[in-house]
Design brief:
By secondary structure, the protein is of the alpha/beta class. The protein has 11 helices and 16 strands. The strands form 3 sheets. Strands 1, 2, 3, 4, 5, 6, 7, 9, 10 and 15 form a 10-stranded mixed β-sheet that branches. It has a 4-stranded antiparallel β-sheet with strand order 11-13-16-14, covered by helices on one side. A two-stranded antiparallel ribbon has the order 8-12. Helix 6 links the parallel strand 6 and strand 7. Bound molecules: pyridoxal-5'-phosphate (PLP).
Length: 393
Amino acid sequence: MMSRFVPLSIPNFEGNEKKYVNDAVEQGWVSTGGAYIKKMEASLAEFLHTDNVAACQSGTAALHLSMVEAGVRPGDVVLVPPLTFIAAVNPVKYQFATPVFIDCDDSFCMDPVKLRDFCANECSFANNQLKYQGNPVKAVVVVHVFGNMADMAAIMEIARDYNIKVIEDATEALGTRYIDGVYAGKYAGTIGDFGCYSFNGNKIITTGGGGAVTANDSKVVDHLRYLSTQAKNDVHYYIHNEIGYNYRMTNLQAALGVAQMEELPEFIRRKQANYNLYGQLFDGFELGHMIGFREDTYSNMWFYSLEINRDKVKASMREIITALEEKGVQTRAIWGLINEQIPYQHEKTYQLEKAPYYAERILNIPSSTQITKEDIEYVVEQVKAVLEAFAHE
Ligand SMILES: *Cc1c(COP(=O)(O)O)cnc(C)c1O
């Protein structure tokens, strides 16, 4: 008998992917020129209700370009989250700037109360310039974790009060939007100064590897695109007025992306339906519960989080994950804290309480768009059995 295996999160190519990729190959347009790149950008801009989007090589490239454009320079300070994927923070170091880690709230996104407290109590503010230990605080990186949305109303107010740029890392939240409040109708990534998206293999849509960046000013997006193409001034002559990067998306990636964009609304509906099913099946289970998404948003519900009841289950994440792996259920722990990784161990942290709390409690469970109802029932059954076995140890 074939044993069952339920992967954590795999790509879904049920649409026009092969057709468009073949087309790009047949036309010979595989690199950083070609019609699919423009189509991908237009499709993203239309979906996000924004004027201009630049497609690039990765979410990390999008974040780095935003950091450059925000004017982050060596010695500057950038406020960042501790509990997320490290790619959100590494671009700070690419610019030889200094990260300061601010705690998250119960949405796993940056806590606006602590952000404001840090600016008010740990920094000086004069001549419209916020400074921490004498160094300019230039930007804050706000990550919309797992498809949730940070409290953007509060964060934008703080950014305005202290004149800092907001870089939204919406790599996990493509399609999440506010349905209530001052930003009703606004999509994750279109509220701050910059918005970054990723189309890596496990994201809600994929181009293999890829990303995109938008900004609240269309001319700024044009400049980001310019920087992403080696800051090349025109097609025929090698004139470069700035230091550029090789960060442009390729036509092959974009061909995949255009097909994926056609399916995005359906992918989101499936993520939501599957999340709701998990919610029902875990309802009343005392050793773990599903973490919700903000009520004032329509969330893409990209990744599902089960909070483990640590009063009852003492086993390590590694033990839990290994036990589930043996049952054919692929899970993973939420990230290790970035401020505990070797390159970041000496950086300033500010009132970290929730981030370490969730770091040892959150288990991510399978969330592929093509997961079946039977798979979900199997996952829940196995997770319950494993947690119950550990609780009785
Ligand atoms: C995936 C991800 C990134 C990086 O995107 P890549 O396309 O892999 O470079 C950045 N930040 C977060 C929060 C992510 O999940």
